[in-house]
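Consider the following assembly input.
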Amino acid sequence: MPTRRSKSPIRILSWNVNGLRACAKKGFGDWLEGSGAEIVGLQEVRAEPDQIPTELSQPEHWHASFSPAERKGYSGVGLYARRAPDRIHTALDETRFDSEGRVQIARFGRLAVANVYFPNGNGKDRDNSRVPYKLDFYRRLFERLQRLRRSGARVLVMGDFNTAHREIDLARPKANRRTSGFLPEECAEIDRWLDAGWIDTYRHFDPSPDRYTWWSQRFGVRAKNVGWRIDYVLASPAAMKFVENAMIYSDVQGSDHCPIGVEIDPGIFV
Amino acid sequence: MPTRRSKSPIRILSWNVNGLRACAKKGFGDWLEGSGAEIVGLQEVRAEPDQIPTELSQPEHWHASFSPAERKGYSGVGLYARRAPDRIHTALDETRFDSEGRVQIARFGRLAVANVYFPNGNGKDRDNSRVPYKLDFYRRLFERLQRLRRSGARVLVMGDFNTAHREIDLARPKANRRTSGFLPEECAEIDRWLDAGWIDTYRHFDPSPDRYTWWSQRFGVRAKNVGWRIDYVLASPAAMKFVENAMIYSDVQGSDHCPIGVEIDPGIFV
DNA sequence: CTTATAACG
DNA sequence: CGTTGTAAG
């Protein structure tokens, strides 16, 4: 059991940037430098590393790595860390998942950080045709991370889960029960994780309503805070012992999502 | 033979707007109202009539007609006239031409105005693969308008010819002899028209160099006037008797082309 | 470089 | 509504 607040906590952040190149033009670089973060996970990078400005693909004083999708301009995750990760895994060993640049599992000593862009359930025709793929992805990653927990790692899973867990997690729950992102079967997947002991770090510290991480770009609803909480940092029980705070940075602009994160006792690494 | 300056001349204008919807946002409507024109031909409308704001698809005090391409967002010509045309022909009776919205031949009494968007010779791979199509179009229209002349009409042909005729008509003639727009075989098509008696109205009145109607959008060359004169009003000999002036409105912004036009004795109609 | 499109979110 | 890719100019 660690001694709490023995040192100043380190910050681990996650942000779906909705296109890193576009976000870069809106000040992503300044945000990164001012973030005070030790580790930053990005989702929806939507670029190959060599399409990204060098200051962001290989920034000074960071270890950066990217896992793009095969399809250009689509999906893709990226990880910045001030210390070098021991290794990064990007494969779930199933082509339909691994071709879409959705997962980075980075090891830093005893800490494992999974940076994840869970699939959107919307299909081509604004239907829910991609929900089965999304649920399969949830299950495949769940099995992988349960194994990682059992191996002794302290695990954080952060990213865009594309699912609001409970009615409190979206502004219009009644209207969206048949919308992907709040389908009963999607919420049940989150339930499975929590039932297995994973902790929704933000909800652990703040039971307040109206705390969202994504707002549709249509109709200017962000100004009215008509949003969804679909970005999370989940902690395994062993990791949760080191989590001192969880944050939602609703004021940060540059994407349709805002950054989220946790503050952690640095003892988590050793 | 008309009496010159017996009445104030009427103005007939032509403009490749490079997307009427985009041009509309840059003040096309104000330009149209302030133009003092009797007839205005547009090229590269790049929209179906019902995609165009009503003020421009059915403007008050104008008779407007459009001939869009089958392919969305591509090519398309449009004509505004303060008096109703007797009729408008849009077909060259060859599908590969007529599907691309390139011609309107409007009759106003004894005056026939052909509003034309000649093909660009560039193919997909920045090659000259569409030059043969372009030359075929030139020839097909030439035959059609020669016939119209012989029928007794006073004919004006205005639009984006996509060809600079002589070295004086572009800023970098030496560098562009192998570029579509200044290929010998393209210039020869213009020669054919002039040899048949058509008059390049602008050149008739102004032998000056550095008079251009199009500037590449790349590298900001318009500020340096590195351009091409590829938009013309040609007049048949019978029409030329009524042409009192020809203009290039280089200062008008809103497209990569600028408007051009002629001033005509109104006796041309009767 | 800019206007369009479509896919995706 | 906005990002991205692609076609076209």
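The radius of gyration of chain A is 17 Å. Ask yourself how this observation constrains the way the partners meet.
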